[in-house]
Amino acid sequence: MEGEKLRILMINNSKGESPSYCFRNKIVGIALEKLGHSVHYGSTAASIDIDDYDVFIFNRFYEGTMEKYVEFLKSIGKTVIYETDDNYEGIDESHAFIKIKDFAILSSRELIKLADGITVSTPELKAEIHNFYPDKDIYVVPNALELDKYKKRKGGNKKLRIGFQGSNVHVQDLLMVIDAVAELQKEYGFEFVIFGLDDTPLKDLNKFCLNYKDKKWKWMEDFPKLYERLEQMEYTHIKTVPYEDYRDKLSELNLDIGIAPLTDNRFNRSKSCLKFYEYAAVGTVTLASKVLPYTLEMDDEDLVKNRHDKWVAKLRKLIVDESYRQERLYAQEAWVNENRDINKVVKQWESVINLIKK
User: What span, in angstroms and rounded, lies between the C-alpha atoms of 296 and 298?
Assistant: First the structure.
């Protein structure tokens, strides 16, 4: 353990546990506790004894100002860290997050200015923040998984299973490649699985999107286009599950191939490769878009340009050649095991927090 024992409060920006909070705070705190540090979790609304903590880590953004609270913490010698894994400045009018853009930017700017240091998940996100705040200390600590809590899938599918996982903010990404998937399904007859998008049946979701009068979310405009194509295919939809059930469900889906399409825009370039890590963790090979962030961490062999013909060609190769598919999976698993295990990455968190605290 570097330096003295840390006493940390991880502060959530909502009552629920978002994936961002879980990956960037919760599992980080659990790993830090294994190193002997003291970590607790709360929200800004919680009644806490601030004397119990030396380091306060604020997650993402908040509705309303945090200025007085943060300034008070700093005035009594507490260390304040701002942790973010999204580039809110990069949200454009077509993005699914447009509805939250204004207060997210105001809150994140405020916390960046006030914090003693900032932690981010990717080099691209660091560069984006550095452009606005060149004098701030910004540290990159990559996302990581509790790999020992993921179960390897059973394999042995009678029919090949190809899957997509993601929330409704990834509707545009799936729409971009769905014609390639449909073309290949007609040729090879594989099962196609969609894990997520929403916690309601897609037929009901489509009706909701078509009938909603005040569309402010881009995905609601795109979803009916996606649904129209899906209705011409054979697919299985697995509804969104709570985070605590997510890992087991991903393993149970027993996907041979996991696709990770991503449109190339400023916001997405600052994201991390979590889909790649999670597919590898359960033994599913990944085919991802040849854009940031995947180009930084994945082999070029496992990347594909965002063109219909390129997706068809690369996906076909994985479909028809089982030995090649297994070879790529082994390489991906090895990289994730070596570089994205929280029990290894936690050392970076420990070092960064100590640097900021000094």
Answer: 6
Q: Just give the CATH number of 7-144+341-357.
A: 3.40.50.2000
* Cβ contacts of 270 within 8 Å, gap of 6 or more: 86, 87, 90, 122, 124, 125, 128, 292, 293
Ramachandran category for residue 7: left, alpha or beta (phi over 0 → left; psi -120 to 50 → alpha): beta
Domain 7-144+341-357 matches domain 148-339 at the CATH topology level: yes
Q: Which fold has domain 148-339?
A: Rossmann fold (3.40.50)
Cα–Cα distance between 88 and 271 in angstroms, integer?
11
What does the domain layout of the chain look like in residue ranges?
7-144+341-357, 148-339
Q: Retrieve residue 190's tokens.
A: 């594989």
Supply the DSSP string of 128-196, one letter for each residue: HHHHH-TTS-EEE----B-GGGPPPP----SS-EEEEEE-GGGHHHHHHHHHHHHHHHHHH--EEEEEE
Residue with tokens 């070092």, as numbered in its chain? 351
Look at the pTM and tell me if it is higher than 0.70: yes
Residue recorded with tokens 């604020």: 58
pLDDT in tens, 36-87: 999 998 776 555 788 999 999 999 887 788 899 999 999 999 999 999 999 9
